[in-house]
Amino acid sequence: MLLLGIETSCDETSAAIVSGPSDDGVQLLSNVVASQDDLHAHFGGIVPEVASRRHIEMILPVIREAMQRASVTWEDLQGIAVTNGPGLVGSLVVGVAAAKAIAQARRLPLVGIHHLEAHIYAAAIHGPLPFPLLALIASGGHSHLVLMHGHGKYDVLGRTLDDAPGEAFDKGARLLGLPYPGGPHLAALADSFPGRVEPMPRAHISNSRDFSFSGVKAALARAVRTTQPQERDRARLAAAYQESIALSLTERTLQVADEIGDSPIFVAGGVARNQRLRDLLAQRAAAAGLRVHFPDPALCTDNAAMVAAAGVHKLARAGPDPPDLDCFANIQLRSWDATTAS
Ligand code: KG4
Ligand code: ZN
User: Fold this and answer.
1) SS3 for 296?
2) Residue 102's beta-bridge partner residues?
3) CB under 8 Å to 117, separation ≥6 — which residues?
4) N or C: at which end does the chain have fewer Cβ atoms within 10 angstroms?
5) Structural domain boundaries in the chain
6) Does residue 342 carry a pLDDT above 90?
7) CATH class of the 2-125+299-318 domain in this structure
8) What is the pTM of this model?
């Protein structure tokens, strides 16, 4: 199946073409991502109204570009997948309206994809997903541990009790006076610090599979307020802050992996680009005899390739959604059989 994927849940306008599914997973033919970073940098954060207007301007050129790069015509397409939640509703609605219009005009099956399942399915582009797997989704809006028993079969085992890790990176960057988007800037400053650092305090929640990042954020705010750090101290603080977040994600993920048995760990979401997290999780997982997999960094942050990859599997197994598909700012991750039954 040749499928068009569309993603507009936050501040990236993206379209991708994939073919599949096959024994080798899903083949990526094109993936175009128009970032709005420059637009929002001026405001120091995402302005929802501004994001949705830019999506409207970009959605058709981005789709056309994805089709051109894949040498695909409208006649070749066999389905459309679109992120329909969770996210900024004024952004989601632009992608969903475009997907519905194309599906209607070309009489194509349409399927709505949950943003978190899209992040997990980024891994399906490299090869078939080995079930059961434990997914850690660490992004700007989410921190979830999901046990996936098969395609579209999800058990959410843990989540953040407060901030998401990407949100913690972004807020930490702001405290350190770094430009938007904060996460990659904080990571670069942290990585510039030579030598080892003592991590900032991290939440120890016993008998839990959840995460918490508000304590480390408060610790950084206190350190910045009381010491007014100079350049080298800022690098040390960034490194100590990054170390705390990377350790929290690593320790909780390995604890849960150990509890559920010998499942491979798949890390997804924007924070999966973080090199310190990659190194730490890879080292500790190897020491525990567990396998860990990270997608290509370009597929960690929001993109339509992962939406399309989820779409080919969902269309094949759960069938299309009705043409009046809606979008939702807040929606829980649910298994496909539960979704179709409701
Ligand atoms: O998955 P994503 O593109 O959007 C959401 O679904 O939220 O993740 C974006 C998040 C942002 O918070 C960004 O700061 C963070 O991922 N991020 C990073 C890095 N690259 C992106 N955080 C830490 N280190 C990075 N290298
Ligand atoms: Zn995302």
Assistant:
1) coil
2) none
3) 152, 154, 310, 333
4) C
5) 2-125+299-318, 133-294
6) no
7) alpha beta
8) 0.96
DSSP string, 80-141: EEEEEESS-HHHHHHHHHHHHHHHHHHT--EEEEEHHHHHHHGGGGTS---SSEEEEEE-SS
* Class of the domain covering 133-294: alpha beta
Q: Which atom in ligand 1 lies closest to the alpha carbon of residue 268?
A: 1
pLDDT band at 73 (very low <50, low <70, confident <90, very high): very high
- pLDDT tens digits for range 94-119: 999 999 999 999 999 999 999 999 99
Selected residue with higher pLDDT from 191 and 44: 191
Chain Cα centroid distance, residue 53: 22
Nearest CA to ligand 1 atom 7: 140
302 lines ligand 1 (CB under 6 A): yes
C-alpha 309 to ligand 2 mean position (Å): 15
Average pLDDT across the chain, whole number: 95
Ligand nearest to the CA of 299: 1
Among 169, 147, 167, which residue's Cα sits nearest to residue 158? 147
> For residue 119, how far is its CA from the centre of ligand 2 (angstroms)?
7
Does 7 score more than 50 pLDDT?
Answer: yes
Please determine whether the domains at 2-125+299-318 and 133-294 fall in the same fold group of CATH: yes
